[in-house]
Amino acid sequence: AVRSSAVDEDGEHRRFAGTFDTFLWVCGMADVLEKINQCQASLFSTRANNYRIQMKLAGGSTAVPPMAVIIQAMIPAQAAGVMMTLNPINGDRSKIAIESTWGLGQLLVDGTTTPDRFLVDKITGEVIEEKIAHKTKMLQANKKRESGTAVVPVPSHLAKASSLTTNELKELCSYGRRLETHFGVPQDIEFATYQNEIYLLQARPETVWAQKQKKVYGLNGRPIDYIVNTLTNFGKT
Fold first, then answer.
1. Residue 59: how many CB atoms within 10 A of its CB?
2. Nearest alpha-carbon partner for 133 in 81, 176, 85
3. CA geometry: angle at 232 spanning 207 and 95, to 5°?
4. Higher pLDDT residue, 229 or 2?
5. C-alpha–C-alpha distance, residues 141 and 104, integer Å
6. How far is residue 105's CA from residue 103's CA, in Å, rounded to a whole number?
7. What is the homologous superfamily of the domain 75-237 according to CATH?
8. Structural domain spans, the chain
9. Are 142 and 149 in contact (CB under 8 A)?
10. What is the Cα–Cα distance from 203 to 11, expressed in whole angstroms?
């Protein structure tokens, strides 16, 4: 895998997720070198410049942060997905949200397939919500070529089956808690599964709820009153 890693790509308050180019199942030195150049060139793509304008960031070749490129060994993922160590719907940090699908995770990240969705209690590990999608397509290595990927139909016996086992969900939640503790803020994590192993591909700070203005309460009154007030009004603002 040849993956973009711009200096300003995954900050706490903004990220360029999906903006820069990433290439999977790249084989051979010549192809790797070509994809490295394409990764670096995507720093100046139209979508990257539009995002800078949207976020009111400086533009121009002299102001744009440099682009590094990561070369990773490909995992022939049986399933892949994204895990957030909070509920992205309401910012609840007592929950972990996981989305997964069969094959490589690019279709999920791009939003071109409907994934399985799980909401898990961060403390107990109990699955609170589970929605298993009817999955019709998946991304895998292109078997007709030496490199690259191809979209193929999901085998019929897997279409309505969960792409993650109960044990995999428990293990993912354990990793999520440890990463959040290590970095000190909620995390947005990409993962893959292969031969009963979980591979963590990337972890970055969650950005949407990190930008929400935090309320500051005065010190008058009992601490328990503030706790009750917070729980009562959670998600209303």
1. 12
2. 81
3. 40
4. 2
5. 9
6. 6
7. ATP-grasp fold, B domain (3.30.470.20)
8. 1-74, 75-237
9. yes
10. 11
> Measured between alpha carbons, how far is 92 from 131 in angstroms, rounded to an integer?
19
* In the block, residue with structure tokens 């990409």: 190
Across-strand partners of 20?
A: none
Q: Give me the chain's average pLDDT, please.
A: 85
- Rounded to two decimals, what is the model's pTM? 0.78
> Which of 87-91, 125-129, 142-146, 232-236 is predicted with the least confidence, judged by mean pLDDT?
232-236
Cα–chain center distance at 18: 10
Residue 88, C-beta contacts closer than 8 angstroms, at least 6 positions apart: 97, 206, 208, 209
Tokens representing 148 are 């690259």
Task: Give the sign of the dihedral formed by CA 98, CA 103, CA 105, CA 106.
Answer: negative
Residues 6+ apart with CB under 8 A from 76: 140, 141, 194
Tens digit of pLDDT for each residue in 158-196?
A: 999 999 999 999 999 999 999 999 999 999 999 999 999
In eight-state DSSP terms, residue 62 is: T
Please give the biggest Cα pair distance in the chain. 69
